[in-house]
Write a structure and sequence with these properties.
With 863 residues, the protein is mainly alpha-helical. Helix content is 60%, strand content 5%. The protein has a three-stranded mixed beta sheet with strand order 1-2-6. Helix 3 packs parallel to helix 7, helix 6 runs antiparallel to helix 7 and helix 20 packs across helix 25.
Length: 863
């Protein structure tokens, strides 16, 4: 389009007047009187097709003015904090009213300037609309300019602020919301009435446009509660920040503050006390503080949408009809989403806290069962079971499965782990993963079987202190097993009627996705604590054999015949392992019962018979001092025998007893094991006596000093019929007690022992802990019964030649191949019935004896 000179001059004159009026309008202090003069100039320029140019120039002028008058001043409020060091920022945060006052002042100033500029924009908008009204049939650019003018201005404001945003401003907002929410939490926590947030109507909506309504939401002044006052102040700050285009930054700031407060609350309630459930308290607190705050804030900002409002648009199917919250009623969809988000974070935080302390929680089980229940609910909600498995296995490897941990402690922790994880996961899927490293480690310990048997039979749960942990004692499991025998087995479908089968099918649930597909769900559910303990050992027979050895040791060392607790334990074991497996143990206990009765009969018969030689009573011992344990050797484990020459008086006593037994139990005869049993002695020193309970060999040693007060070690060993090294080891008991003194003998390898005369010499060797009327003798490393390992080695010696022959022919063989070959060729009298673990133990012994080599997973002859 070409313009003549007059038209061009008119356009230039109108543009100059528009620029002058724009400068006058924007530079004024609340003076909007240029409006009437502005309208004809805008109309003239629009008629010339310059609407777009005047809009862009006006917005550019607004931007320059906004930068100079508002933005620089706004950011200067926060410059001291942003330019300070990290230490100085901590001092800022410690100030009582920081950043409340600075943030409120800065937002008030910039919002006033923005409010005035919005009025200036409305002046131009009114001028453009007036031109459109005069030319309704003409399509011009003025309509497009008037429609985009206010959105472009809002975009300009947010763009200017975001491009000049200091890096530390989000940090300031975060701290502000943390501080305010903490104040709100303290107010609600210290108030008897937690409904304060809902006692005041914080909403006043205006029917004007969105940017105009933000200027005057709070027209009324009302007396409000403290909590409502806090929410109102926070709402003003949020509203002003959103008005300036900081919507995303603001939402992130107060969201992170709420999450931080929730996390702090979970840690405060949970802590290290595992005896109190906390999940319910956390959920109540979420509804009492964060949700009520968000409800009031969203309502204040006009973001709350009523579910009954049909114009609210599409709703989430997860939050279609929420339950009403205390003090809130039926929440909006936004509040429901917040509730789901906060609850999930609370579950996840408490779950991570409990998983991190799961080792300590299981140590304290069952006192810590409330914490286990909380963890179970959290995992059901989050489904993060794999996190528990990985974390707990790592804790076990570094804290439990180490050389410094005793086998008893590992077993106690394993039992508690089984019980705790069965609470969390009744299917036992995750127990399989967690328990496998423990079982593998325990299989490598030599005393595992002995410790398991001790836990099964000892009322103290295997603890040396004798104090039982209710969660560790496996004897309780035997009791429960006995009580549940009348219940139908889970897999026994033959005795289930159709109604019960239908009920079972209705309650069926698939295994978790983490379940091992190689192990069926029935097998998994059937495994109990005792079954898992037996799986460590390898077979039921090994456990029964170890129990038999320990029972024999216990019975042979009994000075009385009180075996009621042993009978009760045996009956419980019979229920779990079967009567045939425990038959030999039952015979052993019956031997004790018979021994008690036989002792009584023999003593009665001896008292009735007359003495053979008058006056011999003083030299001979009375039969009252002898109690014999008579055993059926075919049913007892191999007994450790040792030659021992006892004093003549004792030997006569044993002969009389054996003769009377033969008379009563013809044709049975006694074969005395003189090295076994216990002897109660009373030693007298110058009017004072001391009592000892010792082994027969110790009694034989000290009784020889009745004949003479001094003996050489060689002479005493010959007199007792025991090896010299054995004597030197046994006689140290009396020298340690101070009863005997040791001195150099006639030869270099001989020593002389002398009994002391006075009590003062004895007291020199007795510590404060030993000053008792009776001393109990214990010798570590010596046992009355051959251990299971010794029995196995003796039994497996028969197969040693077969193994050597196989390796000679085949060169090298794996463990499985040796095991299968022995089962195939060792039949009849030399039938092979050992387990794979027993064979591996025997082969390891041959490797230690340097008869075999173990290389690349195979055994071969030592070259």
């Amino acid at each position: 389009m070409q313009l003549d000179a007059a038209a061009a001059d008119g356009a230039l004159d109108s543009w100059a007047r528009f620029c002058a009026l724009t400068g006058e309008l924007l530079g004024g202090r609340g003076d909007l009187s240029v409006g009437p003069r502005f309208t004809p100039v805008v109309a003239d320029l629009c008629s010339r097709g310059l609407a777009t140019f005047l809009r862009d120039y006006f917005l550019h002028s607004l931007e320059e003015t906004f930068r100079e008058k508002a933005v620089k001043k706004f950011w200067q409020h926060f410059h001291p904090y942003c330019s300070s060091s990290a230490v100085d920022r901590i001092k800022f945060c410690a100030e009582e009213h920081w950043p409340d006052e600075i943030l409120s002042t800065a937002l008030e100033d910039i919002c006033l300037e923005k409010s005035y500029q919005e009025k200036c924009v409305l002046v131009l908008l009114h001028a453009l609309q007036s031109y459109e009204d005069r030319t309704p049939k003409t399509k011009s650019k003025a309509a497009d300019c008037s429609f985009s003018l206010m959105p472009r201005y809002q975009l300009m404001v947010s763009s200017v602020l975001l491009t000049t945003l200091p890096l530390n401003f989000p940090e300031i907002l975060n701290f502000y919301f943390k501080k305010k929410l903490e104040e709100l939490n303290n107010v609600v926590a210290g108030s008897d009435d937690s409904d304060q947030l809902d006692n005041y109507d914080l909403v006043e909506r205006s029917n004007t446009s969105a940017w105009h309504s933000a200027m005057d939401i709070d027209g009324q002044e009302t007396v409000i509660s403290e909590s409502s006052y806090l929410v109102k102040n926070i709402g003003k700050v949020v509203r002003d920040l959103r008005c300036l285009g900081f919507t995303s930054i603001t939402e992130d700031a107060y969201s992170s503050a709420i999450i931080w407060l929730l996390k702090s609350k979970v840690y405060e309630l949970a802590g290290d006390d595992y005896r109190i459930p906390v999940l319910g308290c956390v959920k109540k607190w979420i509804q009492a503080v964060p949700l009520r705050f968000l409800h009031a804030l969203l309502t204040y900002l006009g973001d709350s949408v009523d579910y009954e409002n049909e114009s609210s648009g599409l709703k989430s199917p997860l939050a279609s009809r929420p339950n009403s919250f205390p003090g809130i009623g039926v929440p909006s969809e936004a509040l429901v989403r917040w509730h789901m988000r906060l609850e999930y974070f609370a579950y996840e935080t408490l779950q991570d806290l409990r998983i991190g302390k799961l080792f300590e929680i299981i140590v304290d089980y069952p006192e810590s069962s409330p914490a286990i229940e909380d963890l179970k609910l959290c995992l059901e909600y989050t489904g993060q079971h794999s996190k528990l498995v990985d974390s707990f296995i790592s804790s076990l490897k570094y804290r439990l499965l180490t050389a410094g941990a005793s086998t008893n402690d590992i077993l106690h922790q394993y039992v508690s782990t089984i019980k705790a994880l069965r609470t969390i996961d009744p299917t036992g899927v995750f127990l399989e993963a967690v328990g496998e490293p423990i079982r593998d480690y325990l299989r490598g310990r030599k005393d595992t079987i002995k410790c398991i048997v001790t836990m099964l039979t000892d009322g103290s749960g295997g603890n040396a202190s004798g104090t039982a942990n209710a969660g560790d004692n496996l004897l309780e499991e035997l009791n429960r097993d006995a009580e549940n025998q009348e219940n139908v087995d889970y897999d026994d479908h033959t005795n289930i009627d159709e109604k019960q089968a239908w009920l079972n099918s209705e309650s069926w649930e698939p295994d978790p996705v983490e379940a091992d597909p190689l192990k069926g769900s029935r097998i998994r559910r059937k495994v109990d604590i005792l079954g898992l303990m037996v799986s460590i050992i390898g077979s039921k027979d090994q456990l029964v054999n170890e129990y038999r050895v320990m029972l024999a040791e216990k019975l042979l060392n009994k000075s009385d015949f009180e075996i009621e607790s042993d009978i009760r334990t045996l009956e419980l074991l019979k229920i779990h392992f079967g009567e045939s497996s425990m038959q030999k143990c039952e015979i052993m206990l019956n031997d004790l019962i018979d021994s008690k009765r036989i002792n009584s009969n023999i003593k009665t018969s001896l008292l009735k018979s007359p003495q053979s030689v008058p006056g011999q009573e003083e030299k001979e011992m009375s039969q009252d001092v002898l109690d014999a344990t008579i055993i059926s050797s075919n049913f007892w484990p191999p007994i450790q025998t040792e030659d021992l020459v006892v004093p003549a008086s004792v030997d006569q006593l044993l002969s009389d007893y054996a003769q009377r037994f033969h008379q009563i139990k013809t044709p049975r005869k006694l074969q005395w094991k003189k090295n076994l049993g216990t002897v109660k002695l009373e030693l007298q020193f110058e009017g004072r006596s001391m009592q000892f309970t010792v082994a027969p060999v110790h009694a034989a040693i000290i009784m020889r000093f009745q004949e003479k007060s001094s003996w050489t070690s060689k002479a005493l060993a010959t007199e007792l019929g025991i090896p010299l090294d054995s004597l030197n080891r046994r006689i140290s008991f009396w020298t340690n007690k101070g009863v005997l003194t040791e001195s150099a003998g006639p030869d270099a390898d001989d020593r002389t022992f002398t009994v002391v005369d006075s009590m003062s010499d004895v007291n020199k060797h007795i510590t404060a802990n030993d000053r008792l009327d009776e001393y109990q003798m214990t010798e570590e490393g010596e046992s009355s019964v051959a251990s299971v390992e010794e029995q196995l080695k003796k039994e497996m010696t028969v197969y040693e030649k077969f193994i050597i022959g196989m390796l000679t022919n085949f060169g090298s063989m794996t463990l499985d191949r040796i095991h299968n070959t022995l089962k195939m060729f060792c039949m009849a009298d030399l039938s092979y019935d050992k387990s794979l673990q027993q064979l591996q133990s025997f082969l390891s012994g041959l490797v230690s004896d340097e008869k075999l080599e173990f290389r690349d997973g195979a055994y071969l002859l030592k070259k």
